[in-house]
Amino acid sequence: MIKGETGRTVRPSGVLAVLAALLVAITGTGLSVGAGVALRTVQQRAADEAVSRRMELAGAAVAAESGRYVDTMRMIAASAGTIRPLTRTGFTQAVQPLEKMGLIGATSITFMVAATDEQIPRLRATWRDRGAADLGPGVTDPGHEREYEQQHEHIFPVFNHPLAGFAAPADGAALSPAATQALIEARHSGQVTISDSYVPSRDALLPPHRQQRSFVLAAPVHGPPPAAGSPRPFLGWILMEVRGQDFIGATLQHVTHGSADVRLRAHHSDGTDVTVTTLKAAGDGTRDLRRTGQVRVAQRHWQLELSATSAHLPGTHSALPVIVTGAGVVASALLAALTFALAGSRARARAQVVEATAELRAAEEASSRQAALLSAVLDSVSDGVSVIDEHGAFLLHNPAAKTILGIPSTNDRIGTWQRHYGIFTADGEDPFPTEQLPLVRALAGESAEQVPMMIRNLGHPDGVIISVSARPLDAAAGQAGAVAVFHDITAVREREDKLAATSAALHEELARHEADQAELRATRDELVAQKAYLTQILDAINVSVMTVDTGGRLVHGNRIARAVLPAGDAPTLTEIAAKLDMAYPDDKLMPVEETPLARALRAEKVNAVEALVAVPDGTRRAVMVHAQPLHHDGQIVGAVASAFDITALREREAELAAFAGIVAHDLKRPLAAVRGFAELVHESLSDQVGLDEQVLHLERVVAATWRMSRLIDDLLTYATARDAPLALAPLRLGTLVREVVDEHLAAAAAVPSAPMPQVYIGSLPAIRADAALIRQLVDNLVGNAIKYTPPGRAAHVDVTAHPAGDGWVRLEVTDRGIGIPPSEHQAIFASFHRVATAYSGTGLGLAICQRIAERHGGTIAAGDNPGGGARFSVTLPAA
Question: What are the tens digits of pLDDT across the range 158-181?
Fold first, then answer.
């Protein structure tokens, strides 16, 4: 220790200088390192947000582009379904617009059809006539098997069209298993489907690193429905092959800009995950940022994986933390050196130096704390803050400002701010004038408050709306320039717009509500009047009408119904059946659950059911009953039935049937005598010479008697089809048709010189009909199909059935015969009307068929068979 002149104890100056210098260096270095770490943390957070945005953009790009391809497939399938007939020329014209749609990766588009073993010869001939080449062996579809023939279907490519400069595949080229499975799924679902990925044959011989995995999109093609309410017929498929790397690589390249690795993986049907395509980033380095997500492609979900190097992401990695840390360490070293120099001065000034150093250290610490606090505040606030000098150079640009503006770099040239940041007016229509920018106005000494503008650039492709306020900096404070504070108000604007739209919609809804209330009151009054009017109409008609609820209780009955119903407000079906003593036409008691109203409550449509009921005068009357369910919002809420008295009609029918039998007997007996004597004379004269002309006349007489006998039989059948009571019962249509066809085939076999007819019988359901009348209908239609065939050619007849709406079946009989002129499609059902007079007949066969169909509540129609010949469709009630 050394005593000074004043008597105070003074430490050696060298020790004090060293201690002071060390203290300054350590404190300054710590503060500098802390500032560098804080800046690096902000950069890492920005990198995470950047890679998340790229992941979202990549998923949206893949989903949007694949959706465009799926929509294109739907459009082509719908177009192909409307072209009748579809030829190679028509197919080429339908798909040519695809060449200008920029379908990257699409190599070809193909139309495909399916056929069973029996249909293949006819299929090959049909499509050959329409311009297709050899269909090839086809691919067996193991998932589609006919119920009766147990035959697999085969899938054939018919028309192929190349896309994007690829070589045209040959018509009939083989299909991959993945493509075949996609066709099966598309037919089953009725939607566009995507296949498992596979290596196409064109890449099989290439090195593995040059091979591309491809996939196909398949869309079912349906034609227009043949009749109203009937399903659309399945015609085939449209299939497009797409190269995965070309399709997805081009799509993702526009999103990532080479800043991230992308891999797209597909989950295959066998449970494996296969990489469809990969995209590598431009730079090297460790991929320290990764994201994984799902993206929908047609009916499947593929996995999208994205990895990136944070150092390669723009605006997320810079040397600023290192520079700040280095600058702080250098400044601390200089300050320590200065402290050491000051501490080594003369003892007389030591106390002043120590005091000044303490004050300097306190000021430095306060300044560092304020700087760190200001830096932390600016880094943490969500508002963007930008400070420029008097020349427009940026002095401060916090992270929020970079995020909001979407451009991490700054630009010190005022004239280029609008283009650099993409600044537009708030409506996004016009560039924002440079002289009106808030910072430019602040440099001119003018304050700007909450100026709205839109920022639209690569970082914000959809644009964001910001609000900017700017103030000039006071030059007296040591720095001239301007400061701007801005924040994103896009969500606020959207909420305001939604609020305004909601308010307007609410006012419109209130106005509509008031109008609806007035309309409802008017409708209620109208319904009351209509109900009273309808009640008067129902009470005026001589048909019994009654409705019941789902519990079987009576809801309403008109005047005729109330006269026979049990007393009480709401009798049940059991009470109604007991009161009416309802029975079948053979007088067998009808169970309650089989009454028309009970069947209608089970969702059946009951048409033309004949029954016997007891009336108040003690007699039994024959009635014809119709019933059907009542629906509301897709649910059964009750049933309605109508019945009218047919007792007098049945009595007249019985008299007419007896009269017809007598007339037929009286006509046939002399006719048989004429035919018998003519045949005897013919036998006597056939061996005599010189009587050929007389024998020819006798043969004409015999043929005329046979035609007369057949005409009498057809007249009796025609009368029976109209007037005979219906004996409705469940009927196996397939068994009946086979019996009729066997009879016709046996008759054809008796004529060895004639070609044997070929008859195909499809899957036929059960129906509810009169067996005798349906047999007559089928016999007439099949007989006509065999008869009206050009001489010397075998008849080809198809008998099939399809659903025709709720409770109905459509029976179709098609042939390849001489056909029917379009102008005669309705006239042929008229009595005695004949079109092909070169063939034998009475002109009553189709009139009989029409009466039988109408007696069952159905219809019959004639049309052209697309392959040549005629098509007859008959609707009959399902069992």
Answer: 999 998 766 655 544 567 888 889
DSSP 8-class letter at 217: E
Buried b (16+ CB within 10 A) or exposed e, 317-335: beeebeebbeebbeebeeb
Q: Which of 130-134, 237-241, 857-861 has the lowest mean pLDDT?
A: 130-134
Identify whether the C-beta of residue 448 lies closer than 8 Å to the C-beta of residue 470: yes
| Beta pairing class for 289-297 and 300-308 | antiparallel
What SS3 string covers 155-212? EEEEEEEECCCCCCCCCCCCCCHHHHHHHHHHHHHCCCEECCCECCHHHCCCCHHHCC
CA neighbor of 54 nearest in space, from 267, 244, 243, 315:
315
Residue whose tokens read 């008869």: 787
Residues pairing with 266 in the sheet: 274
Tally of CB atoms within 10 A around 391: 11
Condensed to tens digits (0 to 9), the pLDDT of residues 187-204 reads 998 899 999 989 888 777
pLDDT in tens, 458-501: 888 989 999 999 999 877 666 788 999 998 888 888 888 888 88
Per-residue pLDDT band at 147 (split at 50, 70, 90): very low
- The CA–CA distances, whole Å, from 448 to 400, 401, 414, 416, 483 equal 20, 18, 17, 20, 11
**Amino acid code (one letter) for 238:** I
Local confidence band at 1 (pLDDT 50, 70, 90 cut-offs): very low
Write out pLDDT tens, residues 634-671. Answer: 899 999 999 988 888 777 766 766 666 666 666 666 77
Separation CA 833–CA 824 (nearest Å)? 10
Local structure of 873: helix, strand or coil: strand
What is the mean predicted confidence (pLDDT) over 807-824?
A: 92
Q: What is the DSSP letter of 877?
A: E
For residue 604, give every residue at least 6 positions away whose Cβ sits within 8 Å of its Cβ, in sequence order, or none: 629, 807
- Per-residue pLDDT band for 596 (boundaries 50, 70, 90) equals very high
Among 287, 100, 74, smallest CA distance to 191 is for 74
- Fill in the amino acid letter for 545: V
Residue 799, both tokens: 């008998």
Instruction: Record the tokens describing residue 822, joined without a space.
Output: 């379009």
**For 46-109, what is the HEC assignment?**
HHHHHHHHHHHHHHHHHHHHHHHHHHHHHHHHHHHHHCCCCCHHHHHHHHHHHHHCCCCCEEEE
- Joined together, the tokens standing for residue 24 give 């300054």
Q: Is 504 exposed, middle or buried (0-12, 13-18, 19+ CB in 10 A)?
A: exposed
CB atoms within 10 A of CB 754: 15
H/E stretch holding 266 reads: strand 261-267
Question: Strand 193-194's sheet: what is its strand order?
Answer: 139-145, 152-162, 106-115, 234-243, 214-222, 193-194
d(CA 153, CA 139): 8
- Using DSSP, state whether 380 is helix, strand or coil: helix
Q: Are 554 and 563 in contact (CB under 8 A)?
A: no
The pLDDT of residue 627 is: 93
Locate tokens 């009635």: which residue? 623
**C-alpha torsion sign, points 232, 235, 240, 241:** positive
| Structure-block tokens of residue 172 | 């009939």
The tokens 């008031």 sit on which residue? 514
Question: Taking the model in full, what pTM does it have?
Answer: 0.38
Distance CA 468, CA 341 (A): 50
User: How many other CB atoms are there within 10 angstroms of residue 855's CB atom?
Assistant: 19
What element of type H or E holds 252?
helix 244-256
| One-character DSSP codes across 326-369 | HHHHHHHHHHHHHHHHHHTS-GGGHHHHHHHHHHHHHHHHHHHH
Q: What is the residue type of 124?
A: R
Cβ atoms of residues 675 and 705 within 8 Å: yes
